[in-house]
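Design job #97: recover the sequence.
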């Protein structure tokens, strides 16, 4: 049974930091690229950050570059999103996503709420 379980969300003031975690099980984590998406109320889901299976390559949305860092620990089957200098516009539900190499498998977590107050 595939599971992606996000944690670490919450309420934080602007300028603060949060670290999201996503614990994976039920599939070969080290063979999957991992992504963080977010969806704000009334907006489409957007890709925030991605990391390849080995962890050597990362990409970020322009809106979070320099503030967010994605990382992974394949020994712990966990991917992280360190979020610094948070802004009210970062408020959203954050989702963890796992994508297989040939994109034939695509798994989602249930999401974790991040709220940044001004």
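Job complete. Output follows.
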């Amino acid at each position: 049974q595939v599971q992606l379980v996000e944690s670490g969300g919450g309420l934080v003031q602007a300028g603060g930091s949060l670290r999201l975690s996503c614990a994976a099980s039920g599939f070969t984590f080290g063979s999957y690229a991992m992504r963080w998406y977010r969806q704000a109320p009334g907006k489409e889901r957007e890709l925030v950050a991605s990391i390849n299976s080995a962890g050597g390559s990362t990409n970020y949305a322009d809106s979070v570059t320099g503030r967010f860092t994605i990382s992974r620990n394949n020994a712990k089957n966990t991917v992280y999103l360190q979020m610094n200098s948070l802004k009210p516009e970062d408020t959203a539900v954050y989702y963890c996503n796992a994508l297989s190499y040939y994109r034939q498998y695509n798994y989602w977590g249930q999401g974790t709420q991040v709220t940044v107050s001004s």
